[in-house]
Amino acid sequence: MTTAMLTTNDSIAQALPVKPKRPRRANPFASTRVQAILLLVTLLGSWEAAVRIFKVPKYLVPPVSDIAIALWRGLATGPLAKDGFWFHGGVTVAEILLGFLIGGGVGLAIGIVVSQMPKAEALLEPYVAALQSVPKVAVAPIIVVWLGFGIGSKVMIICLLTFFPVLVTSIAGFKAVDPDRIDLLRSLSATPWQIFRKAKFPSALPYIFAGLNMAAAFAVVGAVVGEFVGAQNGLGVLILQMEAQMDTGGSFAVCVVLSVIGIVLTGALRRIQRRVLHWMPADSSQQRTVNV
Question: Start and end of every ABC transmembrane type-1 domain (predicted)?
């Protein structure tokens, strides 16, 4: 009897229509990007309110609204206007790209040579350590005297700042290769070039990109420092002009433009890194850090 009752209940349960479960709505505030935007809005709102409430002088800390107005005025000008952000920003971006490509390329090339010649590392190590410890800001005026106020001096300063991070991280990456992989390739009669191409270079790529990411930030700093020391055009020159006019809001607006340039350059490197290191988990490629 009990079995018959269970069978009847099961048949009734199967006959009843099953209500589909409603899909849970995704919480929009759970996104990291949304949280970052909310944090930025909160900080900017607090900044604006604090300046207005405590009546901070605008030449010390300008309100966010003044920075936004100065940013709009600078971007609303024509691309060739000498008082706008587009012309000076183009000069600064050209300096950053040239210095970054030359400095990073030379650092990577020397790192490759050193990885293939262990004696060269022992020979160059004291010179690299000595040059790396020299403050580049102190050398900048000398470079401007040597190369003049044109774009060459700024490119050289950026090269000095971007060269060492790429060099040091690339050498560390070539050292981090698994010895078993090299022994396996040697057992298969691989040439030194094949060992480098198949084992050393792919293993060093995360370290190389870590150095390039650091070099990208240093490139922006180097461009501004070089323009501070001596230049005719560039965002650094624009900051000096606005500070001379006590236009603190305009100076902050130029800093915003510089931050955007750095973000775009870093984002482009991250995109290239994801494409090149497609065989590597995203967390592993991003968490690989090297002390420089």
Answer: 89-269
CB 88 within 8 Å of CB 233 = yes
Q: Which two tokens stand for residue 268?
A: 């482009």
Cβ neighbours of residue 172 closer than 8 Å, sequence gap 6 or more? 207, 290
Q: How far is residue 141's CA from residue 225's CA, in Å, rounded to a whole number?
A: 10
Over residues 113-123, mean pLDDT: 84
Q: Is the pLDDT of residue 220 over 90?
A: yes
Asked whether the CA dihedral 110, 114, 117, 122 is positive or negative, the reply is: positive
CA distance 222 to 104: 14
For the chain, the distance separating the N- and C-terminal CA atoms, rounded to the nearest angstrom, is: 80
pLDDT at 171: 92
Q: What one-letter code names the amino acid at 25?
A: R
Q: How far apart are CA 162 and CA 107, in angstroms?
A: 8
CB 174 within 8 A of CB 115: yes
Confidence class for position 1, pLDDT limits 50, 70, 90? very low
The one-character DSSP state at 31 is: S
Q: Is 255 exposed, middle or buried (0-12, 13-18, 19+ CB in 10 A)?
A: middle
| Residue 27 φ/ψ, nearest 5 degrees | -75, 115
**What are the sequence ranges of the domains in the chain?**
67-287
What phi, psi does 278 have (nearest 5°)? -65, -20
Q: What are phi and psi of 240, to 5 degrees?
A: -65, -40
Per-residue pLDDT band at 9 (split at 50, 70, 90): low
pLDDT at 33: 81
What is the chain's mean pLDDT, rounded?
Answer: 86
How many whole angstroms separate alpha carbon 201 and alpha carbon 195?
9
- Given a cut of 70, whether residue 26 has pLDDT beyond it is no
